[in-house]
Design goal:
Layout lengths: L2 H31 L3 H12 L4 E3 H8 L3 H13 L3 E4 L3 E4 L1 H23 L4 H25 L2
Antiparallel strand pairs: 1-3, 2-3
Helix pairs in contact: 1-5, 2-5
């Protein structure tokens, strides 16, 4: 097998795993809590922030989403009472949002453990962490050099 074939095979295996793993975890999350992956991602970031608030630009940068996508998602979440929008483009987690993310986090963690953590050995987890960190580092360097 050539280096190009090796990279292609690894990429295809990664894509299959990523798509199936994300799909399974997101279906379980939605079925158990009614939250979408986008809901979970936003609520999780807000929960991790100081006092459950973030400026929308910080959310957008943290998620690497387009402005319009975030705006539409936040509008839907506000309509459902999960977040509120305050002055100065500050997004705030509501009590209902806190309850939802607590339930969702437990569901998400159990699914990740079942389909990911329990399948891999400690050495494999460490290797995957190192691989992921290396790829993210490269992406970060490229973004900084290109000004994106």
């Amino acid at each position: 097998m050539t280096a190009t074939a090796d990279v292609s095979a690894a990429w295809q295996a990664y894509q299959r795993m990523r798509l199936q793993l994300n799909g399974r975890i997101n279906r379980e999350l939605s079925r158990s809590t009614g939250l979408s992956e986008a809901d979970f991602d936003i609520l999780f970031l807000l929960e991790q922030s100081q006092e459950g608030t973030m400026r929308s630009i910080a959310l957008r940068c943290g998620l690497e989403w387009e402005k319009s996508r975030l705006s539409h998602q936040l509008r839907r979440m506000a309509q459902r009472g999960l977040i509120t929008k305050a002055a100065g483009a500050v997004i705030e987690l509501t009590d209902r949002g806190r309850e939802q993310i607590a339930a969702a986090r437990a569901c998400h963690e159990a699914a990740v453990r079942r389909y990911f953590g329990d399948v891999l050995t400690p050495d494999q987890l460490a290797t995957l962490t190192a691989i992921s960190d290396r790829v993210v580092s490269r992406l970060t360097q490229d973004r900084e050099h290109s000004g994106q």
